[in-house]
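Dear support,

I submitted the protein below through the web form. The confirmation email said the job was done, but the results page showed an empty box. After a refresh the structure appeared. I'm attaching both so you can tell me whether what I see now is the final result or a partial one.
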Amino acid sequence: MITIGLQHKEELITSSMQSAKNLKSGGLEVLGTPALIALMEQSAWKSVLPFMQEGFDTVGTYIEINHLSPTPIGSKIHAICTLSAINKRELTFHIKAYDNKGEIANATHKRVIINILSFQQRADNKLK
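What the results page shows now:
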């Protein structure tokens, strides 16, 4: 059952694939914000995935992030999400990310529970 307070942790050892330079979000060989956001969203997504009925999933609809500190490539980082609100199908998470020196980011993230088939059909219809 999905309940407020649910938590989940995801970890990653950064590589050049996650660098700002490689992701074209900047020119430096440090953890790029897009990669950080992906890890934070993954934490929220995986936290509720075991509770989804067959044919249902969640999609991200909103994220507000504060990227507080640079992280060198090769560092181990982790993101911890906490489910803070449930409003019908909308789930709100507070997420913090850390490297070995402390907090590197925090975010508010919203996900919506969707029917996979109808959601995919809505997307596919845009190609017609």
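Response: this is the final, complete result; the empty box was a page-load delay. The beta strands are 7-13, 56-67, 76-87, 90-99, 102-115.
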